[in-house]
Specification:
Blueprint lengths: L4 H7 L2 E4 L5 E4 L2 E4 L5 H10 L9 E4 L16 H17 L2 E3 L9 H7 L8 E4 L13 E4 L2 H10 L1 E4 L3 E8 L8 H12 L7 E6 L1 H5 L2 H9 L8 E3 L4 H7 L9 H10 L12 E6 L6 E3 L7 E3 L14 H11 L14 E4 L1 H4 L2 H11 L9 E4 L4 H9 L2 H7 L25 E4 L14 E4 L2 H10 L11
Parallel strand pairs: 3-4, 3-6, 4-5, 6-7, 9-10, 9-12, 10-11, 15-16, 15-17, 17-18
Antiparallel strand pairs: 1-2, 2-8, 13-14
Helix pairs in contact: 2-5, 6-8, 13-16
């Protein structure tokens, strides 16, 4: 019987099916950080239970970490306590822990792939919604809640109903200045933030085949923003080349055996999906959001649509534009911005900083713009320096901060002030997401770079040869 990539990975990990209920599902890799794990460990302690397979769990500090002066004590008491709890709980249960200052530290969804923790055909969970990032490697990866974190720690399993299957096809070649971030934002704008609810998405077509692994991670990362349980892309030679030789990847004969299995991980030609969409690359240009959810996005050269033409309810739509200080029919081009943020698990990898540098090279940051450039890990930070990108951004008037989740969310010191506009390469533009009263415009690193040097929303294609 023909099956999909998703079916092959899911079915291989089902330990027991419950009639009329969820599957008991085995987890290969469990990633934890300081925010959603402390309560889970308290639950284990209250029950007198140990972590069942600590070698399958990996801990890194990211959400609450400062992005300057990481050698100093963390000032915020809540953040300091959570970071300390992660360190102590990891030590007590024999879990590998990368805290502040560790050479492998960084955002959980950046360091997982960097270290070969993320592998094709694996099941991966984390107490973080953007765990879907790891699906770029042909893994089934999804976010879980705190009680489920405790369940995985104690049993290495989780109880999950099997999602329905969706395939999104995009064929053709991307236009100038169009990045994987734009592809993802375009798809979300077409399907809405609930268009894939209840589904696990497979991305297929030449656009995804031609993407780098970092680009694929960006696309899968944003799957959750259209309501999907996760997203995945079939592994190929790019996948194997990326993971080969990394710290936790198989070696020698184990690598050969793994490759034999990984090469079976693809959707059969006549497999059937519950829902399928096809989009044209000619319809995709550099994107920007104008509202308060990731589905409220448009091509950067367009005008904000009328309430009667969008999928939001009219009242919700008008409330969103009122919060943003925008009107229907406004052009986004030329709107003044105050902050630029490049980073997060969506766009905090070396490829993103290369893109940013390609625009700002030989130019200067706008005087009134505050820019936070935050690598996703110390490994990314080191590459920025090795490749000369640091020199380029410094000469343009920018500074590089230290790794962490930073201004993706208002959970550390990097908060956008109320009423200020931020062009952000992160993943969510909800009210207050980057700080109480902050106004977020989601975009690619190229759009962020163009805004950083002009001080307003600018089409990056103006600066590309």
């Amino acid at each position: 019987m023909s099956t999909t990539l998703f079916d092959k990975v899911w079915d291989a990990h089902v330990i027991r099916k419950i009639e009329g209920g969820p599957d008991v599902f085995f987890i290969d890799r469990h990633l934890i950080h300081e925010v959603t794990s402390p309560v889970a460990f308290l639950g284990l302690k209250a029950r007198g239970v140990k972590v069942m397979e600590p070698q399958r769990t990996f801990a890194t500090a990211d959400h609450n970490t400062p992005t300057i002066n990481q050698h100093l004590p963390v000032e915020d008491p809540l953040s300091a306590n959570q970071l300390k709890a992660l360190e102590e709980n990891s030590a007590a249960h024999g879990i590998l822990h990368w805290g502040l200052g560790h050479e492998s530290n960084g955002i959980v969804h950046v360091v997982g792939p960097e270290n070969g923790i993320t592998l094709p055909g694996a099941t991966i969970v984390c107490g973080d919604s953007h765990t879907s990032t790891h699906g770029a490697f042909g893994a089934i990866a999804f976010g879980i809640g705190t009680s489920e974190v405790e369940m995985v720690l104690s049993t290495q399993c989780i109880m999950q109903p099997k999602p329905k299957k969706m395939r999104i096809n995009v064929d053709g070649s991307l236009g100038k200045g169009v990045t994987p971030k734009d592809v993802a934002l375009y798809i979300i704008s077409q399907l809405s933030t609930s268009g894939a609810t209840g589904y696990f998405v497979e991305y297929a077509g030449t656009v995804f085949e031609e993407m780098s692994m970092e680009g694929r991670m960006t696309v899968c990362n944003l799957s959750i923003e259209m309501g999907a349980r996760g997203g995945m892309i079939a592994p190929d030679e790019k996948t194997y080349e990326y993971i080969k030789g990394r710290r936790f990847t198989p070696k020698g004969e184990d690598w050969d055996n793994a490759m034999d299995y990984w090469k079976t991980l693809k959707t059969d030609d006549d497999a059937v999906f519950d829902k399928e969409y096809t989009f044209k690359t000619s319809d995709i240009e550099p994107m920007i959001t104008y509202g308060t959810n990731p589905g409220m996005g448009m091509g950067i050269s367009n005008d904000i649509p009328n309430a009667d033409t969008v999928q939001e309810g009219k009242a919700t739509y008008e409330k969103s534009l009122n919060y943003m200080g925008f009107d229907q029919g406004d052009a986004m081009l030329g709107k003044k911005i105050d902050f630029v943020f490049v980073g997060s698990c969506t766009n905090g990898r070396i490829e993103d900083f290369r893109a940013f540098a390609s625009i700002v090279k030989g130019r200067k940051k706008a005087d009134h713009v505050t820019a936070w450039l935050v690598p996703g890990s110390h490994i990314v930070e080191a590459k920025i320096k090795e490749e000369g990108i640091l020199d380029i951004i410094n000469e343009a008037g920018f500074e590089l901060r230290q790794p962490g989740c930073s201004a993706c969310l208002a959970m550390n010191d990097d908060k956008i002030p109320a009423g200020k506009y931020s062009v952000s390469t992160s993943n969510r533009n909800f009210e207050g997401r980057q700080g109480p009263g902050s106004r977020t415009l989601l975009a690619s690193p190229l759009v962020a770079a163009a805004a950083a040097i002009t001080g307003e929303v600018t089409d990056p294609r103006e600066f590309l040869n």
